[in-house]
Amino acid sequence: MARYVALLRGVNVGTTRLAMADLRRIVTDLGHENVETYLQSGNVAFDSTVRDAEKLAAGIGRALADELALSVPVLVRSGRELAAVAGGNPYGDLEDDPTRLHVAFLATPPPRSTVDALTVPGSENVSFTVTGREVFLHFPDGGYGRTKFTNAYLEKKLGVVATTRNWKSVRALAEMAAG
Predict the structure, then answer these.
(1) CATH number, domain at 37?
(2) Is 130 found in the same domain as 70?
(3) Do residue 98 and residue 73 come from a single domain?
């Protein structure tokens, strides 16, 4: 068995509502074990014998659609991948306030050309580093709530599905994924 975390995009913000009890039940019904959710924003850790993250994401997405008529992107990271993210933030030593650090998880690595063309909108003070399927974000002048450098902006500019988590959540999910 390996430990994974599924990250659902856009859950319990706006109009897409999902009870975490339903999410736990669906993931458990798929045959996964030690299922636990974190917060109300579509984060679920679980153990699985399946070793293919894309297959896991597709299965959860399909079950959500079939059972609850919800169509939400699902991204899955292994415990090892989350540990690398939590230990590899290039801005971690620059910032004591975790509300100013975020990670956008990407469904696939974006094309190099879109990464090279990615810029911060306007005159915002935002630092970012794209590493594989993650974008590390640092907002030194404030949190994520006031920026135009949002998840939607990243999806549009990079051309891939993304879901963003604050640093406190990333660390908590990495701990959950460590088992």
Answers:
(1) 3.30.70.1280
(2) no
(3) no
CATH number of the domain encompassing residue 125: 3.30.70
User: How many distinct structural domains can be found in the chain?
Assistant: 2
Sheet with 101-106: strands ordered across: 127-131, 134-138, 101-106, 162-166
31 confidence band (pLDDT: 50, 70, 90): very high
> Packing angle between helix 79-87 and helix 167-177, nearest 10 degrees?
140
pLDDT tens digits for range 37-85: 998 889 999 999 999 999 999 999 999 999 999 999 999 999 999 999 9
Q: Give per-residue pLDDT as tens, 107-156.
A: 999 999 999 999 999 889 999 999 999 999 999 998 788 899 999 999 99
Helices and strands, counts by H and E, the chain? 6, 8
Same domain? For 24 and 53 the reply is yes
User: What's this model's pTM, rounded to 2 decimal places?
Assistant: 0.95
Give the closest residue to 147 by CA, choosing from 121, 118, 169, 166.
121
